[in-house]
Write a structure and sequence with these properties.
Helices cover 78% and strands 0% of the residues. The chain is mostly helical and 67 residues long. The protein has 2 domains: 30 residues; 33 residues, no CATH class. Keywords: Membrane, Transmembrane, Transmembrane helix.
């Protein structure tokens, strides 16, 4: 596995003297929390709703109004 991009990120991190370390730790800890779960489940719920709407429209056109 090529890890050149990781080395580039490490060099950038070292060049800034760790200014963004706390920011990156906050982003990382966000992925472990309940709000991340809510965000992802909300996206899934919205996408699932639109898929079911389009399936309903497709079924309406294929089978007519008699379900």
């Amino acid at each position: 596995m090529d890890i050149k991009y990781l080395l580039i990120l490490q060099n950038i991190r070292e060049a800034f003297g760790g200014v963004f370390d706390s920011y990156m730790l906050k982003i990382t800890s966000f992925a472990e929390t309940f709000p991340a779960f809510l965000l992802l489940s909300g996206i899934y719920w919205c996408a699932g709703g639109w898929v079911s709407v389009w399936d309903g429209i497709r079924l309406w056109h294929v089978h007519g109004a008699s379900f």
